[in-house]
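Key result, reporting period 2: structure in, sequence out.
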């Protein structure tokens, strides 16, 4: 009997958006993409939800960061400049600049934040077999 091809369920691992699993931290509700058992990546990320009126902590970090706006609208303040984002927008933030995200609107603003730098890439390459 010929060997059967694996089904899709054995080839992919899906993490569902589960609002009940969000935790409150840094001024918003979030779920980290890592740790994810068996997944090694050269980046880190989080699903982020700002409720109306939420404002994240002002911060900066060594990593570059990409925001992928999923639903609603929000504002990113980068070095004092205000940038509005809406569902479908992408925003690339530079490393080492003060920023925070604010939701002055009447609906939730949900986005994915993905960050990376050379250190994360080198750690990833050290973990993954050649």
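The corresponding designed sequence is given below.
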């Amino acid at each position: 009997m010929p060997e059967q091809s694996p089904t899709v369920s054995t080839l992919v691992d899906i993490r569902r958006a589960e609002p009940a699993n969000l935790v409150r931290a840094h001024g918003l509700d979030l779920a980290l993409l890592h740790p994810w058992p068996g997944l090694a990546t050269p980046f880190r990320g989080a699903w982020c939800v700002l409720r109306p009126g939420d404002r994240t902590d002002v911060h900066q970090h060594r990593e570059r960061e990409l925001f992928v706006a999923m639903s609603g609208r929000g504002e990113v303040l980068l070095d004092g400049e205000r940038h509005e984002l809406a569902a479908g927008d992408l925003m690339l933030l530079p490393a080492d600049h003060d920023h925070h995200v604010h939701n002055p609107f009447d609906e939730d603003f949900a986005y994915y934040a993905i960050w990376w730098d050379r250190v994360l890439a080198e750690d990833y390459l050290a973990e993954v077999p050649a």
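Residues 1-6 have pLDDT under 50 and may be disordered. The first strand starts at residue 23 and ends at 25. This case is discussed further under Risks and Mitigation.
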